[in-house]
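sry for the spam today, last one i promise. struct tokens for design, 506 residues
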């Protein structure tokens, strides 16, 4: 065993994502010692629905934790702390004795609660509520999903002791404690952004009982200890401290070094997000806010749906076979083929809101392609997906710059999509800004390890010193002026398309 492993302290961290769960053992120097990943499917049983059985998450956690620990070959006693992050906003109803009461919970991208949102928008002053909520009314927020459960599954609502988000349901399985952190609480439309606590005013407005919500903790705080029975199953010692953790996006922001106001972060995951950190909350009905897992706020917007995976699952059988035979990633083959297509995809533009838009009340939007011709191939379509998503993210970047009064010379790209050289080039050339890449793309897991270190007062509890250990920019992708000018013309066309299609669905 190396000196690194003999002398280091380790953290066991878990990311319960939308497309799969990843567990990792990370050292106090930021080294990923071992990782394990378990993929699973999203379910779309009805129009506007997107769901998963919470039992799938727990089974994936158990499998990946065991595999990561086995691969790490470290002593179980070397695990100093644990933490969980995960896909945000979905309310999982638990009984007082820990039974899950509903196995088709509405996930973050689920919009079955559109009627609840539209009804609320007609009865309240949405903009006037911004100082409290920090956010527009949208189906994503946990409180409006709980409202749907109350309206449509009253017996489930009545039996519910606490509603927990996906990562908090795993924290409960690990510790037996019902908890939530500030980043998740702030994405509920039940949180008072001025006071950092649940809002009785918003709860009354939605008709949600505050007693059914768990106590709120800071993300780095210890909320419980690893239960004896779970420790035995994982071959770990019982009593390992478990921190509150945070939403996967917010932990990814921390893992990317997103704590400074001069950095814009592009998170390329199942959803695609553009975000920046602010010391004080900045409100606008076209943007959203979440409490950071450290001090401050995250101002952002996102494209939902996971379009690259949708394309892979439905149109990439040949590439899947090739990947299996060659040992390559399916996405790397799709990228290679799409790279042969000129920028702008020969006039093909995608409208990327396949499952609606979060803000501006355009919940019922659907996706679309403009300029599709007999010349276009599936490689054109795949490239157009990457480009169309980037056009939309540029809109968000410009909105954030306008609201904050800051200009960003560079954008830091993180998340699974950051591994794609093609996506990096598209981002740089559409934005017309430098794209920064980090040594590790696993921002959420790194963020969790940093939070564990903050709790245990590593580096004297200095976040700046911890960030220097974890966050290392290793590559810069500069925009090419000629390609940027071509993309500018497509971006202007996209803006017109955005207005036309949005008006059509409205």
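last one done:
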């Amino acid at each position: 065993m190396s000196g690194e492993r003999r002398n280091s302290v380790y953290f066991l961290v878990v990311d319960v994502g939308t497309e799969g769960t990843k567990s990792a053992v990370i050292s106090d120097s930021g080294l990923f010692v071992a990782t394990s990943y378990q993929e699973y499917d999203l379910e779309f049983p009805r129009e506007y629905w997107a769901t998963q059985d919470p039992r799938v998450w727990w089974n994936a956690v158990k499998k990946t934790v065991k595999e990561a620990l086995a691969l790490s070959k470290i002593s179980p006693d070397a695990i100093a702390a644990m933490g969980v992050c995960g896909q945000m906003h979905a309310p999982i109803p638990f009984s007082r004795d820990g039974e899950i009461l509903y196995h088709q919970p509405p996930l973050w991208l689920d919009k079955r609660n559109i009627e609840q949102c539209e009804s609320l928008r007609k009865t309240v002053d949405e903009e006037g509520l911004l100082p409290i909520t920090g956010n527009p009314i949208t189906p994503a927020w946990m409180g409006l999903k709980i409202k749907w459960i109350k309206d449509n599954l009253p017996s489930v609502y009545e039996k519910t002791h606490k509603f927990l988000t996906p990562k908090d349901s795993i924290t409960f399985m690990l510790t037996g404690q019902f908890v939530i952190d500030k980043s998740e609480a702030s994405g509920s439309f039940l949180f008072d952004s001025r006071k950092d606590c649940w809002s009785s005013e918003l709860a009354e407005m939605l008709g949600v009982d505050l007693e059914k919500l768990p106590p709120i903790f800071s993300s780095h705080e210890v909320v419980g200890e690893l239960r004896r029975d779970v420790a035995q199953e994982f071959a770990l010692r019982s009593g390992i401290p478990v921190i509150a953790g945070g939403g996967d996006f917010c932990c990814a922001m921390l893992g990317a070094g997103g704590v400074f106001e001069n950095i814009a972060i592009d998170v390329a995951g199942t959803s695609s997000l553009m975000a920046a950190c602010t010391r004080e909350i900045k409100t606008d009905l076209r943007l959203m806010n979440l409490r950071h897992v450290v001090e401050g706020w995250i101002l952002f917007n996102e494209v939902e749906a996971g379009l690259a995976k949708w394309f892979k699952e439905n149109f990439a059988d040949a590439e899947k076979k090739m990947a299996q035979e060659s040992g390559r990633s399916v996405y790397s083959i799709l990228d290679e083929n799409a790279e042969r297509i000129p920028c702008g995809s020969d006039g093909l533009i995608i409208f990327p809101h396949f499952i609606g838009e979060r803000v501006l009340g355009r919940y019922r939007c659907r996706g679309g392609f403009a300029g599709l011709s007999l010349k276009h191939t599936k490689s054109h379509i795949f490239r157009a997906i990457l480009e169309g998503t980037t056009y939309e993210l540029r809109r968000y970047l410009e909105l954030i710059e306008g609201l904050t009064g800051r200009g960003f010379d560079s954008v830091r790209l993180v998340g699974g999509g950051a591994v794609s050289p093609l996506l990096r080039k598209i981002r740089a050339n559409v934005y017309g800004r430098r794209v920064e890449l980090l040594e590790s793309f696993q921002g959420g897991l790194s963020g969790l390890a940093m939070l564990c270190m903050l709790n245990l007062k590593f580096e004297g509890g200095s976040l700046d010193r911890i960030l220097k250990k974890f966050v290392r920019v290793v590559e810069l992708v500069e925009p090419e002026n000629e390609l940027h000018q071509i993309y500018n013309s497509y971006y202007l066309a996209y803006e017109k398309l955005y207005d036309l299609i949005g008006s059509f669905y409205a």
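Residues 307-438+474-505 form a domain with the Nucleotidyltransferase; domain 5 fold (CATH 3.30.420.40). ok im logging off now
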